[in-house]
Structures are given as C-alpha cells and as structure tokens.
Design a protein that fits this description.
mainly alpha, 2 domains, elongated
Length: 124
C-alpha cells in the first residue's frame, strides 16, 4: 500500500537479537514521537559525517552485534567495583597489598559474585 508520500516510511525487522528487541520496544514506547527522534538522530549523524549527504558517496554500514547481557554485566561489575573500592572492610583486607593486587582481588570478588548468581539461576 503506497501513499504517494515520498517521506512516509515503514520500518520492520526480526526480533532475533537483544538489540533489536530493545530498539523495537524503545521505538514503540515513543509512540507518535518516533519520527522526531529518528530525524534528530539522522541530522546528528549527517552533521558528524557530512560526506553522507553527498549523493555520489556510497554509504557502508558495518553492524556490530553486541550482547546487551555482556554490556550489562560489565556495567554492573563497574558499579560494584566502585562501591567495593570505598568500603573499609576491603581496605583493611588489602592493607598490605599493592593497588594492583587490591584491584585484582576486587575483580576476583566480583567474578565470584557473578558465578554465584549464575549457579543460583541454573537451579531455578
């Protein structure tokens, strides 16, 4: 069904990755404001990449699929690491350690926490 309006678009994609599902949910949540949001993003892109506006240029996009789960784990680890770094209990336990050893010990503690979470989830 064509409307004849060259500025009317329909987007669709498979919901086969976490990224696609997340984007789909976000756009759905925007409701009637999707167009304004997408226009602003594209304008920002064209400002950052003026060569994209040149009709003789061929645009090539390399889509890098990332696991949102891994990204979230890294963000959570960073937050935990920041929180643990300020605790006096950890400072006392790492009192005789160098800073590199203390950071390594914090990483081990965080990795153990996530391993315990994975074991807990597998038992459900």
């Amino acid at each position: 069904m064509r409307s004849g309006d060259p500025y009317k678009f329909t987007l669709s994609w498979q919901k086969d990755t976490e990224e696609r599902i997340l984007v789909g949910e976000f756009l759905r949540k925007l409701g009637n404001k999707k167009s304004k949001f997408i226009i602003q993003l594209i304008c920002d892109y064209m400002t950052a990449h003026p060569e994209a506006v040149n009709p003789k240029e061929t645009l090539q996009f390399i889509i890098k699929s990332t696991s949102l789960g891994e990204t979230m784990i890294e963000m959570i680890k960073s937050m935990i690491q920041t929180e643990l770094a300020g605790k006096t209990v950890l400072e006392q336990s790492f009192e005789n350690s160098t800073m590199d050893q203390a950071e390594s010990n914090i990483d081990v503690v965080i990795d153990d926490m996530f391993e315990n979470l994975e074991m807990w989830n597998s038992n459900i």
